[in-house]
Amino acid sequence: MASVGPSAASTQPALPSGPAVFKTIPYAFILPEILCGTWVWILVAATSVSLPLLQGWVMYVSLTSCLISLLLLLSYLLGFHRNSENWKVLDSLYHGATAILYMSAAVLQANATINSEFGINAPLNYQLNSAASFFAFLTTFLYILHAFSIYYQ
């Protein structure tokens, strides 16, 4: 019978702090999530928003996810987690929920892209919306990767 004591708990990998965050999977995904999410809201903001309800949700999801991910990255860089296992649960739940929200935003952005094909300034808006759709799906994929890789760690 194996004993559960300090030696068994020490086999768990430590949460990264400082620059090690950028070298450790899944925490290395946070910066690309922020950058791709930033591109989503920049590209949507650059279009003439023809469907404010759809693209408003895309802007809300991308902006809030970007800001919360930035706070999470800063907390890892500054070591606020103090190597607590609760941070892994928080991280996994946040990234899982955000992946679901981002998937809904990416689908709505794809719908807005289809609808912008024949609108005012059609070529430019269509290209911007297409790029925003691409980055929305890419960001969704990054959030899914992050959530599952921390779960299976």
UniProtKB/TrEMBL annotation:
TM region(s), chain numbering: 27-51, 57-80, 92-112, 132-152
Residues of the MARVEL domain: 21-153
GO molecular function terms noted in the UniProt entry: structural constituent of myelin sheath
Any GO BP: myelination
Entry's localization field: Membrane
Membrane topology reported for the UniProt record: Multi-pass membrane protein
Primary localization: membrane
Keywords from the named record: Membrane, Transmembrane, Transmembrane helix
GO cellular component: membrane
Protein name: MALL protein
Biological source species: Rhagologus leucostigma
